[in-house]
Amino acid sequence: MLVVGAKGFAKEVLEVIMEQDDLKKLVFYDDINRNKKKLFNEFSILNTVKQVEEFFDKVDNRFTIGIGNPELRKKMYDKFSSKGGVFTSVISANITVGSFDIELKNGINILPGARISNSVCIGKGSLIYYNVVITHDCKIGAFVEIAPNVTVLGRVIIGNNCSIGANTTILPDIVIGNNVVIGAGSVITKSIPDSVMVVGVPGKIIKRIN
């Protein structure tokens, strides 16, 4: 498998892959620090798209994204899917998932301690960090980043390409638009339109974003 990224969140993904003992064909990708050839002096780092294409063709065409930013996750998905890669989820075994009506789409990363209830959909390429709680009847869009210790209560809908800061609580029946950034520690008590930044208790819009 190829992990796109070789810093930061890629190291968290590595730990989940180690749970699955799937290290024999594991490589990372970093085209910014081209002089770096190994992660932790053990795992090879590819530095060019040509190397990735060869890896997909000859070794393993699966890839996941070791980057947290929703916009970059979407860009990397487009880039490596176009090179023949198969977008693959990396999900910790140390999570709790409901028994009924669960839809986890491809390319998801879920880290240990997450709790996901029944009737939940998590969209393509989304990232669920440590100890996130998503309760019943919630729908999470594509390429959403949910930081540690976030609580998403019943019947919440979160749009695509959103970033939810650590320790945020989203109250029931809230609808959050696309391309929304919510600051850490916020409490969201009202629905939020597209393309805004929200912070505070209760959460308030502080600016529009592109």
What features would you describe in this structure?
InterPro entries: AcTrfase_PglD-like (IPR020019), Hexapep (IPR001451), Hexapep_transf_CS (IPR018357), PglD_N (IPR041561), Trans_hexapeptide_repeat (IPR050179), Trimer_LpxA-like_sf (IPR011004). This is Acetyltransferase. Residues 2-80 form the PglD N-terminal domain. Keywords: Acyltransferase, Amino-acid biosynthesis, Diaminopimelate biosynthesis, Lysine biosynthesis, Repeat, Transferase. The chain has helices at residues 9-19, 49-58, 70-81; strands spanning 2-4, 27-29, 38-39, 43-46, 62-65, 86-87, 90-91, 96-97, 102-104, 109-110, 115-116, 120-122, 127-128, 133-134, 139-140, 145-146, 151-152, 157-158, 163-164, 169-170, 175-176, 181-182, 187-188, 196-199, 204-208. The strands form 4 sheets. It has an 8-stranded mixed sheet, covered by helices on one side. The chain has 2 domains: 2-88, Rossmann fold; 91-198, UDP N-Acetylglucosamine Acyltransferase, domain 1. With 210 residues, the protein is of the alpha/beta class. It is globular. Strand 5 (62-65), helix 3 (70-81) and strand 6 form a beta-alpha-beta unit.
